[in-house]
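User: Some background: our group keeps a shared notebook of sequences we're curious about, and every so often someone picks one and asks for a predicted structure to add to the entry. Today it's my turn. The entry only has the sequence so far, pasted here. Could you supply the structure so I can complete it?
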Amino acid sequence: MARRQKGSESEDAMLDVNKKHRDMDALAEYRRGLLKKPQLRNLFLELTLRCNERCIHCGSSCGDVQSEELTVPEYERLLREVREDLGTGGKMLCITGGEPLLRREFFEITEIAHSLGFSWGMTSNGTLITPEVAKDLARVGMKTISVSIDGLPETHDKFRRTPGGFDKAMRGIENLLDVGGWKALQVTTVVTHENISQLDELFTLFDKLDIDSWRVINIEPIGRAKQHPELLLTPEDYCTMFEFIRSKRMAGQPVCYGCSHYLGDEYEREVRDWYFLCTAGLYTASIMANGDITACLDIERRPEFIQGNIRRDRFSKVWLDRFEVFRRDLSDTTELCRGCPEAVYCRGDAFHSYDFDARRPEVCFRNILF
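Assistant: Of course. Here's the predicted structure to add to the notebook entry:
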């Protein structure tokens, strides 16, 4: 893996608790303005719900799913409207699924995005990235990609319920490395109670690859994962995972945690390059495979979270005039946050892991990390 420069100014600042408080106070004030004037930065395009794997943790339960999918002309119209109304600068198209490469018109859609001036990246299980596909991804302007490796071979294949999936994904990564020229090639690992003991071995494996970063994230109690409580992390597991990430980062290694969850004084800015901010509806919007417009694709798919559909609505108007359900503090809806001094920073944590029936966050690190 590529190394960060050790002893950098940012690393020194990460250890300064007083500076963290000043930064988080400034972020809380900035967020209040963002609630009134959001800035679209990430637009997710869910090209399909079909997937050639059956991952236990999948938030949208992808697999052998037959659903209505937007046509190529509909995607082209959407992207032209976004460019006309909101511009392409400072925006990233995030191509996802399902497994997006299963979409027959994948390269038609991404070539249109590239020709219109959009930067785009994708998430993939990597199993379909042959040498030819890797070259085509470069041809249509892909900038970034994150490939999932969720444990050593046997664990990965069991978790993704795909015999041979580990070897295919690793070959996909090697094919991407052979082409080269990517802005960022990342591996993402979902940590479970079953694979947390493999982190050191996985680091040794990935350290031999010329990837740009390794993103280590916890399994979330959403989607299919709710059927497998035995895989959820214990408080001790969480502490082990965050200590592992922090120790690698302090050694200059490009290991990071994801964007989810407020981590408290001890770990904010220690395990990632930024402070917690749930960007659903503030920086982030998504187009589901059927054209429905929402915020983050990992959020529970409830009717009240569907803000429109691009087949009948102009995206920019929906983005600017709706999304009120996401532009609020979740902490205002639950008694659990009342009186918590961290609520000003946490704001009820992340939309994707919130239980809207019980009115409580599914993941809260109070009394675990802080």
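Suggested note for the entry: DSSP finds twelve helices and twelve strands in the chain. The longest helix spans residues 17-36.
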